[in-house]
Amino acid sequence: MAPVTLASDKGRVIGTPDTAGQALSVRGMTVSYGAAPVVFSVDMDVPQGAMMAIVGPNGAGKSTLLKAVLGIVKPLSGQVRVFDRALKEALPRVAYVPQRASVDWDFPTRVIDVVMMGMTRELGLLRRVRPHHRARAMDCLARVGMTDFAARQIGQLSGGQQQRVFLARALAQQADLYLLDEPFAGVDAATEAAIIAVLKELRAEGKTVVAVHHDLSTVPDYFTHAFLINRSRIAQGPVAEAFTPETLDRAYGGRLATAPVAQMADTGA
Amino acid sequence: MSADFVALSLPPLVIGVLAAIACALPGNFLVLRRQALIGDAISHVVLPGIVVGFLLAGTVSTWPMLLGAAAASLVAVAMIEGIRRLGKVEPGAAMGVTFTTLFAAGVLLLEQSDTSSVHLDVEHALYGNLESLIWIDAVGWQSLVDPVALAGLPPELGRIAMATLGIVIFMAVLWRPLAVSTFDEGFARSVGLPTGVIGVALVVVSALAAVAAFDAVGSIIVIAMFICPPAAARLVTHRLGAQVGWSLVFAVIAAVAGYVLAGHGPLWLGFANSVSAAGMIATVSGVILALAAVFGPARHRAGQAT
Q: Which of A83, A108, B237, B247 has its CA 20 to 30 A from that of A268?
């Protein structure tokens, strides 16, 4: 097993990391909502074309890390490079899928309108929606198997259908890096299969995918890389290296029974 | 007959309709953001602002009072944010504390200062004086194209028309960012929208609507029009654009029906006097909301406890 290398020590960067070829590089990210940091001095590298799971216990700072990367929450410190550029420059190449529960699904809007929100940037303030925009939104819905629901009010969808709509909106952004916050939380098996199929398609197209993920048993099947976090980084790298009984034990602080963990990690190794 | 109508009824009707539109438009987004009380708060804190403006200027001229009202509404917004963060209470509580305190301060100021000689009192603040906004120079419909007569229009009409126009333009230009950031703030920020600025801009525009409408029709209409037409519209449609459209329809119906009912309703019922137009407009908007709650086609919604 390759030793886990730390690029920073107590927030101090050791050497200048090479960020070329990385879809996403984070250095010294610290986020705090109150007194105690939720994310502490995290370094992260996501190679282009990777499919990376962010794994860790509840309250480990997984979602917060994603939000801080995107500038949705303001970090105390930390640098973010996306495709070797400043975040602001690279933002058009990034798509974000928030947690499904973070929005009000009673909002008066239809499925197709939510997907069109993925084109917010290209439509700007006053540009008219053209038939080709609509056609693209319908294509995105087709990719997640939701064509028949285009005119539905979003409150009438099941949890899995809502998650697919969110994914379709991200597809409409035509990004190169996809950041998803718990895309499989509370969805049915068919939706999970549909979503992972789309994510694997994206990877086949050369896109990079990062997802906060809860179900440890599917990590080796779904992802190529893993990032283990419990406020600070525990491990990162290809699944076989970073997702091991030893790293999981450190991430979860012995809260997982050791035997199943070893089993899970073994299936990936 | 037509001369009477143009001189006595047309200006208050138009002012009432414009005030209703100015408040209902931003009200749609305030209601969807669960910030509907902001409108209530702003319309109350306008009172101390106007009194302070009057005390500083020493006259009942309009601009000091409007500036005072606008300043007070910004102070209120800052207070709400401050109380919410420092006191760690929910936004509704912070708004409640802010507007009752400032409104009470306004009433005290009004009692203590020598404003008895001028037309400035609590009743005026609540109900405005829609019926008194008449067009003395009008002799009939032809006055609408007579520059001399037009110059005699009530100044409130020009102010509310300008404010309404500004609000319509604001909503049209910022429609997409408002919709996206109201539905999904995290996503909005991830595509680079300045959600904080958008939120503040919405509150400032609401304050503009509240101050302009207060000037013409008093705060009771402001409170009603921020909430009732959008809430009723939400019950008849599942689409944002349609909701805003319906809210304008309801706002106009409330303004026209309220004005007519206030003037003629009591007479039809055999009473001698008419009632406050502002009060009746607010009441009609409440009735529309009640009807929408009972008959609205979109009143059954997923995700709601029944």
A: A83
